[in-house]
Specification:
2 domains; two-stranded antiparallel ribbon; 4 helices; about 40% helix; about 25% strand; elongated; binds zinc ion
């Protein structure tokens, strides 16, 4: 299966390297699994790698499978994103102008400083 990344050279760590301590207190390095995209592409036929690649939180965000039909993942991600966006918009968009603050606090200061007069008139 072929995967395409947003980034030209992109390394995705699927399982990080880690140290294992045995019963005798000896440490040994257990190699993790990572893949590297070159020229935005990575291809594998290893079902284990494919599964791991699809399970990362950045799947569908930073990279995705080519021709991948997995509507469940996509819909879940899209609706989740949409909800967040609309909440964000109501919390931080100025009711008086097209300004969009980065936070509710930012919006408050914006309204106070830019529309201070209007706000008091309306009250
Ligand atoms: Zn404004």
């Amino acid at each position: 299966m072929k995967f395409v990344s947003k980034f030209k050279e992109h390394r995705v760590v699927l399982i990080p390297d880690r140290y294992i301590v045995d019963n005798y207190g000896r440490r040994s390095l257990q190699k993790g699994i990572s893949v590297e995209f070159h020229n935005n592409e990575y291809e594998t036929d290893d079902p284990k790698i494919i599964k791991l690649l699809k399970e990362t939180p950045i799947y569908g965000v930073h990279y995705r499978g080519v021709g991948d039909v997995d509507p469940q993942t996509d819909i879940a991600k899209q609706t989740g994103k949409k909800e967040n966006e609309s909440i964000e918009a109501t919390l931080t968009s100025c009711p008086f102008c097209p300004f969009n603050a980065k936070s509710a606090f930012g919006l408050k200061s914006h309204v106070r400083f830019v529309h201070g007069d209007k706000v008091s008139e309306n009250i």
